[in-house]
Amino acid sequence: MILLAQVLVIAGLAPLVQGVMKRLRANLQGRPGPSPLQPYRDLAKLTNKEVLLPNGISPIPLIAPGIALGVAVTFAALLPIVVRNALGSIVDIIALVFLLGLGRFVLTLAALDSRSAFAGMAASREMTFGSLVEPALLLALLGGAVVGKGTHLSSVMDVPFGLAGVLAFAAFFLVLLAETARIPIDNQETHYELTMIHEGLVLEYSGWQLAMLQLAGFIRQLCFFVLASLLLPGGAEGWRHLPWILAIICVVPAVETLFAKLRLFEVPQLFATALILAATSIGLRVFGVLV
Amino acid sequence: MTTSLIVLVAGAVLILNGRAVGVLIAYVVLALTVAVLGAGAALASPATFALFAVATLLKVVLAPLAIGLFVRVNPAAEDLRPSVPVPVRLLLVIAFALAAELASGMAALASMPMLNLVAFIVLCGVGMLIVHRNLLAHMIGLLVLGIGIGFAGSMLAPGLPEPIELGTAFDALIATFIGLALVRAIIVHDPLLDVESLRRLRG
Amino acid sequence: MIAWVVAAPLLAAIVTTAFPDLRTRRLVRIFLAAVAAVLSLSVAGSIGWLSLTFTVIVSVLSFLATVFSTGTFSPEWGGSETIWSRKSVYFVLLGAFWSAMLLVVLAQNFAALWLGISATTLATAFLVGFSGEAAALEAAWKYLVLCSVGIGFALLGIVVLAHVTIAGGMDSRLALSWTAIVGHGFGAPPPAARLATVLMLIGFATKAGLVPMHAWLPDAHSKAPAPISALLSGVLVSCALYAIVRTLEVGSALGASWLLHEILVWLGVASTIVAGALMLAQRDLKRMLAYSTVEHAGIVALALGFGGSLGFLAALLHIIGHAFAKSAAFFAAGMLQNDFGTTTLAKLRGLWKRGGSGRLLLAALIALAGMPPFGLFVSELLLVFAGVAAHQWVPLGLGLIGIVLGFAAISRNAIEIESGTSAVPRIAGRLPTVARGTIAVALTGALIVAVVPWTALGASLQGIAVAMDAAP
């Protein structure tokens, strides 16, 4: 079916997107950088490695990679790129936010379960930032819902763009930076465990489980990019918005290079700004001003 | 519509930005927009146009140039050091925009064109005085206030003689230079030009 | 002709700098200042009685300040090497200040009035920060920024006023002239007129130092050199109050009368009470006098707010009396600074026995406290009558509480300064006669005001009051 093809294409392209962005970031910083195909090689390498887990853990860390990959694949299936309503009423904004929350929840539990100090620290940060990011994520996507188009995921395409659209996209962009663990919130290339947030959650994993978690992360990232492109103007058909992804792939490494990582207590200010921007866009849509 | 957006973004940058250069650029953009909008009334005769051109030159070129040169010579004073974090400033800008829209919507004031832009510019000028701690931001805020009032003049009372416009422009320029001279004397005591250093006299 | 009168003091100051020899320069300066002062009275025929009264105040007191500065230019004033702290710059700025104030009171429309007030702010910014010490720079900065914001709002109000009058059918050349506006006869009250006049009132009230826009006044008036403080407190505040009177005149013609009077009443109450209370806590003589200015401005605002011919007459007499008495007080404070090097109240004791400056200060403080036979007693009495006539019991009561607080502060400080034994060493020799004479003249002015209501001048002032009367 079309949905199966959509999921396979997204899953197949996701590591390439990650590789291209890593290469771009390296080039912007004056380094040659790895090949864009490197993530594929890394995933293949990881599947051949031994799995080592801490002693005395519950089943949760064992099932966490599967749940994470499942959440990512479901996210990919929900996106209204080609067909709008293939899965019926579960293609819903609020359901999506809860789905992402489920993934975060399970991963955090697994990290806590390993009783490692660094993983615990990363888990607490992930939960704090997650709780601050979710309202902004929800409000940024609800633009269509407040003008009566329903909470179906495709409603983000059914509203006129205008100033409200710009503000909603700005808020969603900040959320995207947070969810894909990018500077200025989190640094994917850091080696210091004390500064890790997303990397810290998967610190205890190895082998094919780590490969599943990494693939889940890549798929989630690409899905967020697709969702961001849906928020930008392009018409009623989902696939018309896809060229925006190329722009996002170029802009995100540039943002990572131009800005410095925020100190931990300054990050909530960024989320508060995103929330205010999203709330303003909702307000503008509700009152029909400057839309 | 486009002019409203430009004014909105420029005003937002004035409050949200924390560096002197960015704020100066936003000020110049705002001054140019206001000059373009007000130029229609000034085309009545060559004399009025000449006066209008001189006034615009003073406000758009000389004043920010003077402040920019001062910042170049004293780089420590470039940081505007806002006293409230970004989300609060963003809320402030949104509140100003809302207030300006509401003010222009009141029935008694309906006869005045572009009142919402005037009110927004004036509020942003006053907002800069409240939000930023650097004394240079206070000066730029006064200049923004001057622009807003000049805009009000050209929108609301286009029949007024242009010498008034020139008088207020000269006034703003002289105030800028006096302010810079004072700031040059203050910077000896406080290189950061922080308004906290001006709290010695109390009670 | 008016333009020459306005420019005369500034031209006189500039011309004076051309003389290299000190004694010649001093004589030329005093002579030219006298010429400028008398010249300003020559336009008596072409301006109204109200403008003429204020012109007299401005000219006489500015002349006295110039004489005082020439006689006692203290080295303490120009402490550091800032670009403006030079004696010649001081007198040129003083001339510019005087000219700007003349522009305010001789203007025939709001545009020139506003330009004059704005010019006073610019001319005095360096004068306030003249000594170059950190506290003076702080005072000058606050003064510049707060007054610029205030008169910026006043200009916004003037622009809206022009819009209203032009939309009401007036010729654009006369759109801001108060005689033209009052004579035009608008049909229904224009809707935006209240916004315009309230904005103008708030803007000019900032310049007059009414609470809550008074934050700059205690700093600026206490850190400026003494004769400049005298002019700022006595004359500039009076010019700002003159602008408020013109705003009231126009506002009454445009239907904003009740609102403006209410705002003035409550500004006056707030000013008298806050300033009166803060006066009790002051430790510096000049700062206490500055708060006293805020209080007296509040009394004038209260009188204008009560309205009616009684209220207006009270306000006018109070402005005149306060101008002379406050100038005398600041001149005396300047002499004290010259003689003893300090104006801190704790250090000043037993001055009655130690020469003329203490005694003259006492006389000035008695005048400021509103005691007979000085003019402020008469005007405060008229204020009470005006309040009773307007049936505004609560504001009147609150205002009287503020006046009593101010009286307590001045009396306590006066008694403490004059009595007791002094420990402060005298640093200067004999008191310059010039300075003594200046204060004596100023105090005589305050005395004369007391008898004004019973003279012909009083009758004509009452005439103005009746003409300006608009029932609140």
Account of the protein in words:
The complex is a heterotrimer of chains A (291), B (203) and C (472). With 291 residues, chain A is mostly helical. Helix content of chain A is 64%, strand content 0%. Chain A has helices at 2-28, 38-47, 60-78, 93-113, 117-141, 162-179, 198-201, 207-231, 243-258, 267-287. The model of chain A has no long low-confidence stretch (mean pLDDT 88). Chain B is mainly alpha-helical and 203 residues long. In chain B, 75% of the residues lie in helices and 0% in strands. Chain B is built from 7 helices and no strands. Chain B has helices at residues 2-16, 20-42, 46-73, 86-105, 115-131, 135-156, 162-189. With 472 residues, chain C is an all-alpha fold. Chain C has one domain (2-468). Chain C is 75% helix and 0% strand. In chain C, helix 4 (87-106) packs antiparallel against helix 5 (110-128) and helix 11 (257-279) runs parallel beside helix 16 (393-418). Chains B and C meet through helix 5, helix 6 and helix 7 of B and helix 5, helix 6 and helix 9 of C.
Features of the shown structure:
heterotrimer, A: 291 residues, 0% strand, C: 472 residues, mainly alpha, 18 helices, 75% helix
What can be said about this structure in brief?
The complex is a heterotrimer of chains A (291), B (203) and C (472). Chain A is an all-alpha fold.
Q: Roughly what percent helix of chain B?
A: over 70%
**pLDDT below 50 for ≥5 consecutive residues: which ranges of chain C?**
none
Characterize the overall form of chain C: globular
Distance between the termini of chain B: 48 Å
How many strands in all of chain C?
A: 0
Give the helix/strand layout.
The complex is a heterotrimer of chains A (291), B (203) and C (472).
Chain A: H1 2-28, H2 38-47, H3 60-78, H4 93-113, H5 117-141, H6 162-179, H7 198-201, H8 207-231, H9 243-258, H10 267-287
Chain B: H1 2-16, H2 20-42, H3 46-73, H4 86-105, H5 115-131, H6 135-156, H7 162-189
Helix pairs in contact in B: 1-2, 1-4, 1-5, 2-3, 2-6, 3-6, 3-7, 4-5, 5-6, 6-7
Chain C: H1 2-16, H2 22-40, H3 49-71, H4 87-106, H5 110-128, H6 134-167, H7 178-184, H8 193-208, H9 216-223, H10 226-253, H11 257-279, H12 285-306, H13 308-340, H14 356-368, H15 375-389, H16 393-418, H17 433-451, H18 456-468
Helix pairs in contact in C: 1-2, 1-4, 2-3, 3-4, 3-10, 3-13, 3-17, 4-5, 4-10, 5-6, 5-10, 6-8, 6-9, 8-10, 9-10, 9-12, 10-11, 10-12, 10-13, 11-12, 11-16, 12-13, 12-15, 12-16, 13-14, 13-15, 13-17, 13-18, 14-16, 14-17, 15-17
